[in-house]
Amino acid sequence: MPTVTMTVNGMQRSGTVESRTLLVEFLREHLGLTGTHVGCDTSQCGACVVHVSGTSVKSCTCLAVQADGADVTTIEGLANGTDLHPMQEAFREHHGLQCGFCTPGMVLSAVDLANRNSNPSEHEVREWLEGNLCRCTGYHNIVKAVQAGAQAMGGGS
Amino acid sequence: MDEAVAALGGGAKLIAGGQSLLPVMKLNLAAPTDLVSLAGVPGLADIADGGDSVTVGAMCTHTQVAGSGIVQARIPALAAMADGIGDAQVRNAGTIGGSVAHNDPAADYPAACVALGATIVTDRREIHADHFFQGMFMTPLEDDEVITAVRFPVPERAAYAKFANPASKYAVAGVMVAKRGTGVRVAVTGASGDGVFRVTEMEEALEDSFSAEAVAGIGVSSHELLSDTAANAEYRAHLVTVMAKRAVEACG
Ligand SMILES: Cc1cc2nc3c(=O)[nH]c(=O)nc-3n(C[C@H](O)[C@H](O)[C@H](O)COP(=O)(O)OP(=O)(O)OC[C@H]3O[C@@H](n4cnc5c(N)ncnc54)[C@H](O)[C@@H]3O)c2cc1C
Ligand code: FES
Ligand code: FES
């Protein structure tokens, strides 16, 4: 079985995995980082979104071995101690979540957008969140939160 | 590259972005013994302006093609098409090489390749798009053949219009129209289970008069079109004409 080594939330982590292990399984089951969720088996819901080398990807549609050597950020890696990341703070402030199941993926996806566009329009946010499904909120407050979070981030992460 | 080719064949398969292969493996529709990643092969993710053509490396992601200054300037229809694939995370991982090799009958790239008259470049030969897309998931690629790039001739004008499946964004019907010195091409994806096809009647009408009205009265037969949960064959036939009109209008 292959051994994978990657930087996860700033720390070097490694593990021996079956070759078919998905990145999300490695994160949740090997590293205990259960903030990354799995909401579907069709690569469509976005609950599993993490950053691999700075861009958002679906960790359910990426093998752990594909992320070998990469720099991975999960929802657990965004806050600075007890200080929430500006995007997390914006979701809290604007009530961008209800049950919270979709939220980790939403936030990581939103941070990727904000890194590319610090002042996205409502339309741009809705287009960008195509791959993030929420069954609770109706998206309205999520869109507000992402716009506010992007502005608070000021274009950098 | 030599190492990758040597490792292929038998039960081994290439993996690029994994955005088609991993879903297919989850469904147990593919069970490769080994996966060979192209991620470490240098030089496969470049986009080059060759004057009368643009060459896109096989490992370029959809995000890269959509955001490329060269593609936006020379073939804006291709950049816009890439920007309409799936969602942001699919575009961040999925590649042009994987999309073309997979030849999903509802994928967008096959329509762009056929309408623009692209050439698929592999580690051992060049294959014109007209001979490449051979039906659902079928291509002339050998088991150990690797696509290295796709070369697109620069058209005078081109545009793509897609009626997307609301859940996946795959094409229920997508039409790429391209006008070049050599004539007009109209390529349709998503509508037929056999994959991309051309509508020569529309092409001839557009060569006479390049306007949306020229194709408005031309329909395709629903006979060989797909019926599924997204749309039945009659509706898809209707969509082909509507998307063709929209694409011609978008050509400006
Ligand atoms: C939720 C979702 C929505 C999507 N929506 C759309 C959409 O709207 N439109 C659309 O067109 N597509 C869509 N896709 C598919 C997506 O575009 C894929 O990225 C693409 O089809 C495959 O590219 P890949 O790099 O991920 O290839 P992989 O999945 O890695 O590989 C696919 C196949 O191609 C082979 N292969 C890969 N690279 C090469 C190469 N260089 N040479 C030879 N063979 C190779 C592999 O062996 C495999 O058989 C969607 C996918 C998902 C998960
Ligand atoms: S778990 Fe649904 S897209 Fe990954
Ligand atoms: S808050 Fe419940 S799924 Fe989004």
Spatial shape of chain B:
globular
Average the pLDDT over all residues of chain A and give the rounded result: 96
What is the CATH architecture descriptor of chain B? 2-Layer Sandwich
CATH architectural arrangement of the largest domain in chain A: Roll
Give the termini separation of chain B: 42 Å
| Backbone CA Rg of chain A | 15 Å
- Briefly note the structural class of the backbone of chain B: alpha+beta
Q: What is the class of chain B in the CATH system?
A: Alpha Beta
Question: What characteristics describe this protein?
Answer:
heterodimer; A: 157 residues; alpha+beta; Ubiquitin-like (UB roll); DNA polymerase, domain 1; five-stranded mixed sheet; globular; B: 252 residues; Uridine Diphospho-n-acetylenolpyruvylglucosamine Reductase, domain 3; four-stranded antiparallel sheet; binds flavin-adenine dinucleotide; binds FE2/S2 (inorganic) cluster
Account of the protein in words:
The complex is a heterodimer of chains A (157) and B (252). Chain A has 157 residues and is of the alpha+beta class. Chain A has two domains: 3-77, Beta-grasp domain (Ubiquitin-like (UB roll), Roll), CATH 3.10.20; 86-153, DNA polymerase, domain 1. Chain A is built from five helices and five strands; from the N terminus they run ββαβββαααα. A five-stranded mixed β-sheet of chain A has the order 2-1-5-3-4, sandwiched between helices. The longest helix of chain A is centred in the last third of the chain and has 14 residues, at 103-116. The N and C termini of chain A lie far apart (36 Å). Chain B has 252 residues and is α+β, with helices and mostly antiparallel strands. Chain B has a single domain, classed as Uridine Diphospho-n-acetylenolpyruvylglucosamine Reductase, domain 3 (2-Layer Sandwich). Helix content of chain B is 36%, strand content 23%. In chain B, strands 3-4-7-5-6 form a five-stranded antiparallel β-sheet. In chain B, strand 8 and strand 9 form a beta hairpin. Chain B starts with a helix and ends with a helix. The mean pLDDT of chain B is 96. Chains A and B meet through strand 4 and helix 3 of A and helix 2 and helix 6 of B. The site of one FE2/S2 (inorganic) cluster has 11 residues of chain A, from loops. Flavin-adenine dinucleotide is lined by residues 13-21, 23, 38, 58, 85-86, 90, 94-95, 97-99, 101-102, 104, 107-109, 141, 146-147, 168-170 of chain B.
